[in-house]
Give the backbone structure.
Amino acid sequence: MIGERCQHHAVVAGIEHRQLLADWLRGTAGLAAPVDAKPRHRVVWDFRDAIPDAIEQTLDPAWAPAGANDPNCKLTKEHPNPVVLLHATSTAKWAYSAGAPYLANQGYCVYTFNYGNITPLPTFPAQGLADIEASAREVSRHVDRILRQTGA
C-alpha cells in the first residue's frame, strides 16, 4: 500500500516537475514569469551561505528553508500539486536552502521535512538514516498531511 501510494504521488507530481527540471537544466525555468515579477524569496546557490544558519536549523524544529512549508500557499491551475522535497540519506531539509525558495518563486507550494532520524534530537543535521520501511511510513504520513492541508 505504501509503495503504491508513493508511486502514485510520484507519477502525478512527476509529469509537471520533469518539465520544470528540464527547463531548469536549460536555464529557462521561470522565464514565463512577468518581467516585473519580483522574487519573494532570496535564492542562494552557494552551499557555504547556509552555514551561518546551521545552529538555528539544528536547534529549531520549526525551521524550514525560505519558501517552504508556507501555510498560506495556495495551489493554482498552473501548479495543482504541492512539491514535496525529500532529503537524501545523511542530510536534512537544509539541503533545499536554494531549491525551496527557487521553486516557491516560480509559484509552487513547496514542502520539506526531516525523516529517518535515529537520534533523540529531532533536528539532528544528519537524517534519513533509519530503517527504510519505517522511513517510508513516516514519509507517507507527511505526504498525506500535506495533501490534506493543500486539498490536492
In short: The mean pLDDT is 77.
